[in-house]
Amino acid sequence: MSVFKDHKISLKQVLEFVPKALLSHLSATTKVDYYSKVLHGEKMFYLLLFCIFDNERLSQRTLEDTFNSSGFKALFGLGEDEKVRRSSISERLSKIDPNYFKEIY
To answer: Which of 9, 21, 30, 96 is the most exposed place for a label (fewest CB within 10 A)?
Structure first.
């Protein structure tokens, strides 16, 4: 995994700071997954974080390509049959509660 810009920290090291139990707890308390079918808060967090580390420029197309890649799915335990379109990412980004990410931070 790439090193974040000029910092000497990897994605794996950042993920060690965020326990999976915290993500599950915050999903329940912030109700971030209430109307979500595919792009749950945890997946969005992993997707955004992975793309920040892996790509020079962050765009909805980059997010779509990353989510649909085998490497991302294998890394975060997603099914190979899970697919997402750019329009779904766009909609989810416009509706997701930013407090979910603030609480993770």
So the answer is: 21
